[in-house]
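Retro notes (design track)

What went well: tokenization of the new backbones is finally stable.
What didn't: we kept losing track of which sequence belonged to which structure.
Fix going forward: every design gets posted as structure first, then sequence, in one message. First example under the new rule, 467 residues:
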């Protein structure tokens, strides 16, 4: 039996792992590569024949884990794709949105337009990468027909493979995957959650496994205390409101937007933020996914479930406004003294671009970053201190207050990663493979694991191991 690492190796996107036996081929995740240096990999042929893949196990709905599933379908895969019920609901929105992006890029390239998204490639690579869409809406709809759901903690089987989803605590529906293949026990951690999260903090711990494929995004790094982060968040909100400015929050559509909304609701209920202050969610995709959070709210932190009687009440407050269409979004831009949560999280497209254009040069306003900003993105330029940025071909001076709050991370830090692994019976573990981290963070975690007696490997892209 072999395991091959086809993504998320010494980098943080493109999660895809292939388990091969003499009679079966199994994928865990089939994610998109995101970022200037790796985006072209999405257009390359798979390192396997999609028609020969028997089934796929999906950890969760972020595109770096699920984003190439429609391509898999497009190239002939017709097996089952297993996931939790909330994940099935969310990927429908995520993948249809992704397909629209592929189709838009293709149309714009045919018209000779330059793609304005955050993954813009330069030179010959850009020309070759948009000669065709990676997949389209038809491929997504076909893929969705193959999806089947399984509840957390319940064992299920496919052609002799035993499987179970465990709560990973990273986002609604996110799972670690336990597989028993020909008697060998594998755990694929997926993205592990931050236990300090208000909404998605519940983790189930694996007890027995021989081979562990484990994320390492924050190896050697520790999150700021969540209470301290929330205090800083409230302070900048009230300071900005007192001077008549807007608080602009670039936020990812899945998990981070819902986490921030829930915090703002809590602060409003406590009287820390006036009920007269309008809070806008300006992202159609985030609004749709918030609807999934409402529907599946019983999957969330038990403390939240006990406090609120229904999913509707989790994100409802009289001062909250969801901007469903472009007209509503345009009306927001005329306001001052508001809190605006908008996508894209890295400021590379979507409605956040317009809010930045209207507020960056206003000394009264604040731009509050609550997530990672990749190199080459507008968000990264702003947090790196550029005094002037280009938005929609217009130069904009950066005069607003720029605030970086990284304590909202949805990932486990170094301590959390070690705690997750510590629940597995060490004597059973033959090998730990460290993925989904940059080389430095993976090495930091590897050193800690080896000191604790584990054998740890950091695979290279396409590297294959006999197990």
């Amino acid at each position: 039996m072999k395991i091959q690492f086809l993504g998320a190796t010494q980098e943080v996107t493109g999660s895809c792992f292939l388990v091969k036996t003499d009679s079966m081929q199994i994928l865990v995740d089939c994610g998109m590569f995101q970022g200037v240096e790796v985006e072209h990999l999405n257009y390359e042929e798979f390192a396997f024949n999609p028609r020969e893949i028997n089934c796929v196990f999906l950890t969760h709905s972020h595109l770096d884990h699920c984003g190439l599933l429609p391509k898999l379908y497009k190239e002939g895969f017709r097996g089952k794709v297993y996931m939790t019920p909330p994940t099935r609901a969310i990927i429908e929105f995520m993948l249809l949105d992704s397909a629209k992006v592929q189709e838009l890029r293709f149309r714009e390239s045919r018209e000779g337009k330059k793609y304005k998204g955050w993954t813009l490639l330069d030179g010959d690579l850009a020309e070759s990468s948009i000669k065709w869409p990676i997949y389209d809406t038809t491929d997504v709809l076909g893929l969705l027909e193959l999806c089947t759901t399984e509840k957390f903690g319940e064992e299920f089987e496919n052609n002799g493979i035993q499987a179970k989803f465990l709560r990973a605590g990273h986002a609604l529906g996110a799972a670690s995957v336990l597989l028993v293949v020909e008697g060998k026990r594998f755990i694929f951690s997926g993205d592990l959650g931050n236990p300090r999260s208000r909404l998605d903090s519940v983790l189930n711990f694996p007890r027995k496994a021989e081979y562990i494929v484990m994320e390492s995004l924050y190896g050697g790094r520790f999150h700021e205390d969540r209470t301290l982060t929330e205090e800083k968040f409230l302070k900048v909100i009230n300071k900005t409101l007192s001077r008549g400015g807007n608080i602009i929050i670039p936020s990812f559509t899945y998990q981070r937007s819902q986490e921030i909304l829930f915090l703002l609701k809590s602060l409003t209920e406590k009287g820390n933020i006036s009920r007269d202050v309008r809070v806008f969610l300006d992202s159609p995709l985030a609004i749709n996914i918030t609807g999934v959070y409402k529907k599946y709210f019983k999957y969330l932190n038990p403390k939240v479930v006990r406090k609120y009687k229904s999913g509707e009440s989790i994100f409802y407050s009289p001062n909250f406004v969801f901007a469903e269409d472009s007209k509503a979004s345009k009306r927001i831009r005329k306001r001052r003294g508001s809190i605006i949560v908008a996508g894209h999280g890295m400021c590379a497209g979507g409605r956040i671009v317009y809010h930045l254009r209207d507020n960056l040069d206003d000394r009264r306003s604040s731009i509050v970053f609550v997530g990672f900003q990749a190199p080459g993105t507008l968000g990264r330029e702003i947090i790196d201190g550029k005094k002037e940025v280009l938005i929609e071909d217009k130069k904009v001076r950066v005069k607003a207050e720029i605030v970086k709050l990284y304590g909202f991370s949805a990932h486990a830090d170094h301590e959390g990663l070690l705690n997750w692994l510590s629940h597995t019976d060490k004597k059973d573990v033959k090998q730990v493979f460290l993925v989904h981290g940059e080389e430095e963070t993976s090495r930091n975690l590897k050193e800690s694991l080896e000191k604790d007696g584990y054998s740890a490997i950091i695979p290279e892209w396409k590297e294959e191991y006999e197990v």
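Added context from the reviewer: DSSP finds 15 helices and 22 strands in the chain.
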